[in-house]
C-alpha cells in the first residue's frame, strides 16, 4: 500500500500544455512578464523530509518562473520522495546554465539520487538508435512518429540482423531521410555486439523495436545507458520466443503489450507501460496477431514519449514511478 501526494496547478488554461508552444505566452494579470516564455520539466528523487515541495517551488518562483503542474509521490514507510514539475520561465531572466546551478544546489541540499531538468526548446533532442529484426510494424511506427514529430527524438541509425531489399518501404524511408541502416547478420556464436556498441556510442538510449536477439549482460554494462524493449503480452506471462503464439494457444481472453527496460534477466526489467485489449473465440491467429501488433506499436511509442518527457523514474529494485 502506498500514499500519493499530488499538487495541482491552479491555471486551467494550461490543459494540454504538452502540445502547446509557450514562446508567445503571457502570464495572466502580469503586464510586465516577457512575451517569450519557455517550457521546462524537472524531476527530483531524494530522501523524504518536510519542506521539499516548498523549496522546489521557491527555486522556480525566485527566478520569475511559474509552475504549471506538479506530481509528488511519497511511498508509505519508505522515506523517499519523488516529484515531477512543469513550469514556464523567461530564459533571459533565468539562463539555462543558471537553472542547472540552482537545481544542483537543491540536489546537494537534499542528497538527491536524481535531479534532472529539461527544456525541450533549448536542449538537444534525445539521440536514439533503433534495433529491429524482420517484423516492421514497430519500426515503421517509430519512423513515422519521428517524421511527424510525435516522438521528440533524433534517430541516428537503424540496426538489424535482417536484410531488407532497397525498394522496401522501410529502406526507401531511411534513404529519403538520410538515416543509416546497418545490416549485421548474427549467429548464436556471434551477436555482433561489439559492432553494435560502436554504432550506438553517442546515443542517449536504445529502442528494441521487436529485435529478436538477447543482449548480453556485457553489452548492457558496456553501453551503460537505458534500453527500452517492447514485448507482446502482459509480463511476466509468455516470456521468450513467439509469445503471441504462446498466448493464442493458451486461449487467453485478454491480450496485451508491455514496454520495459532491458536487464540481464530475459523480459524481467522494470515495466514502463502496459496496454490491453479483449479477444475472443471468434479471433483467428491472423486477427489475434493484428490486434497484438497494434498494441505493441502504441505501447512502445507511449513509453518512449514518457521517457523523453521525464515521466519515468526508477523505484525500488525492479519497479518504476511513471508520472
From TrEMBL:
- Gene Ontology BP terms: 'de novo' IMP biosynthetic process; one-carbon metabolic process
Xref: InterPro entries: ACT-like_dom_sf, ACT_dom, Formyl_transf_N, Formyl_transf_N_sf, PurU, PurU_ACT
PROSITE patterns given in the database record: ACT
Record bears the keyword Oxidoreductase: no
Where in this chain does the record put each ACT domain? 41-124
Pfam families named among the record's database cross-references:
Formyl_trans_N
* The organism's place on the tree of life at top rank: Eukaryota
Q: Which GO terms describe its molecular function?
A: formyltetrahydrofolate deformylase activity
User: Is Hydrolase tagged as a keyword?
Assistant: yes
Q: Which keywords does this Swiss-Prot/TrEMBL entry list? A: Hydrolase, One-carbon metabolism
The molecule here is called: Formyltetrahydrofolate deformylase 1, mitochondrial
Amino acid at each position: 500500500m502506498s500514499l500519493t501526494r499530488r499538487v495541482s496547478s491552479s491555471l486551467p488554461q494550461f490543459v494540454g500544455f504538452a502540445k502547446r508552444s509557450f514562446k508567445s505566452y503571457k502570464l495572466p494579470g502580469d503586464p510586465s512578464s516577457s512575451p517569450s516564455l519557455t517550457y521546462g520539466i524537472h524531476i527530483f528523487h531524494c530522501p523524504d523530509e518536510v519542506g521539499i515541495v516548498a523549496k522546489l517551488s521557491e527555486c522556480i518562483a525566485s527566478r520569475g518562473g511559474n509552475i504549471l503542474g506538479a506530481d509528488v509521490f511519497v511511498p508509505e514507510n519508505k522515506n523517499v520522495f519523488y516529484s515531477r514539475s512543469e513550469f514556464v520561465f523567461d530564459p533571459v531572466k533565468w539562463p539555462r546554465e543558471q537553472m542547472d546551478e540552482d537545481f544542483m544546489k537543491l540536489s546537494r541540499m537534499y542528497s538527491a539520487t536524481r535531479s534532472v531538468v529539461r527544456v525541450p526548446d533549448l536542449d538537444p533532442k534525445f539521440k536514439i538508435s533503433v534495433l529491429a529484426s524482420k517484423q516492421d510494424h514497430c519500426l515503421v511506427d517509430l519512423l513515422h512518429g519521428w517524421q511527424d514529430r510525435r516522438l521528440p527524438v533524433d534517430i541516428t541509425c537503424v540496426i538489424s540482423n535482417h536484410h531488407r531489399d532497397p525498394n522496401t518501404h522501410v529502406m526507401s524511408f531511411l534513404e529519403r531521410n538520410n538515416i543509416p541502416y546497418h545490416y549485421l547478420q548474427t549467429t548464436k556464436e556471434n551477436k555482433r555486439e561489439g559492432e553494435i556498441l560502436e554504432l550506438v556510442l553517442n546515443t542517449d538510449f536504445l529502442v528494441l523495436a521487436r529485435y529478436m536477439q538477447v543482449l548480453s549482460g556485457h553489452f548492457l554494462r558496456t553501453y551503460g545507458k537505458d534500453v527500452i524493449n517492447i514485448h507482446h503480452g502482459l509480463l511476466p506471462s509468455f516470456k521468450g520466443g513467439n509469445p503471441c503464439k504462446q498466448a493464442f494457444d493458451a486461449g487467453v481472453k485478454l491480450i496485451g503489450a508491455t514496454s520495459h527496460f532491458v536487464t540481464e534477466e530475459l523480459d524481467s526489467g522494470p515495466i514502463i507501460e502496459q496496454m490491453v485489449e479483449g479477444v475472443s473465440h471468434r479471433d483467428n491467429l491472423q486477427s489475434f496477431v493484428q490486434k497484438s501488433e497494434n498494441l505493441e506499436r502504441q505501447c512502445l511509442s507511449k513509453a518512449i514519449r514518457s521517457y523523453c518527457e521525464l515521466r519515468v523514474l526508477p523505484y525500488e529494485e525492479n519497479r518504476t514511478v511513471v508520472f
